[in-house]
Amino acid sequence: MKFRTIARSVASLALLLAVTGFGAIPRAKVVLGDEVFLRSTWHDLHGRCVGVVTNQTGVTSQLVNIVDAIRENPHICIKAIYSPEHGLRGDQLAGHFVSSYRDPRTGLPVYSLYGPQRMPTAAMLRGVDVLLFDIQDVGDRAYTYISTMAEVMRAAARYHKSVWVLDRPNPIGGEIVEGPVLDPHFRSFIGLYPIAMRHGMTIGELAEMFNNAFGIHAHLRVVKMIGWRRSMLWSQTGLRWVESSPNIPTWQTTLVYPCTGLIDNGGINNGVGTAKPFFYAGYLGMPAYAYASALNAEHLPGVYFRPAAWSPFFGFWRGRELTGVELYVTHPHRFRSVETAVSLLVAGHRLMPRLRINARGMDDDWGTDAVRLGLERGESAAQIINSWQPALARFMKLRAKYLLYPN
User: Fold this and answer.
1) Which residues constitute the domain of residue 317?
2) Residue 143 scores a pLDDT above 90
3) Which of 115, 210, 256, 363 is a Cys-bridge partner for 97, taking CB atoms 3.0 to 4.6 Å apart?
């Protein structure tokens, strides 16, 4: 009798949840490219087999993994999975090589594209006709997922495969564009093509640009979103954020990543190794109140600096107290992340001239040596920012040809 009563209670609760919608994921304002594919575009495969380039972020608005969703459709033939930096489940640290293996859940081979091999080989593509790319980007040139996309497109062109990019939002919006355009002399996997640091584009728009403007010439199709506008930040889409890598746990982190992600090789710690990666800027013995005062006196748009102290729990500075500032983004639509990075570097080096620069690392991060050289010459933040404006204006003209969504 007791167990029957419990069973009836559980059944009643399940019915209540179904009726009220409590616990369900609310409908988003944006229909993702993968949802458009799953609803209708898959018919255009006409029996061709797919390989899926994805990771833990490749989910629908209901948080269903794209591979699982595809396997629910018996009419879609899926042959392989390909994973970027951080691995299929996003649990590998930045820069760590990821191995290939067979997925125990699906039985499919998972080919790593972040190891000795970063472009799919002919063997990896055997039996695959169409490569589906479904990974959430963060809107920053140095984040390697867009480089993986470019390498997949290059392989598709080489081996006569098609690429369908299932488009997703730029979490920091599609209106603000800033930062230096990559100088080809500093081309690397954190910057393959001459685009701005904060490009203000979706992965689908970038794919079109890479393919046509930079000469990949793959057989490309972008499966567009429905309902996304350039003015939207992630919080306005109604979508749920899935940690895109170990140090990007929240969508708010994507706001500051294009800022403090650029200062560590300039000698300033950015809080990686703490519970708030990329929200700090400082050093051992940095005068926190003076640093905060100098930065707040600049009245930088959309951000406030609080004097702060932190102790990383892993990495080089593990267990040591660092001091400096914590960033509070007060107006995300106004915050100029890359320009703020320049101010952090200039003010930091004026307060602590002994800060050491990793020249190679800094130039690779920024995609130019102009920022480092300006810093070494003692130039102001405004002078450094002005130096990249001519190239940025040319990029803006090129970018306009590939924008797929309205403001």
Assistant:
1) 253-376
2) yes
3) 115
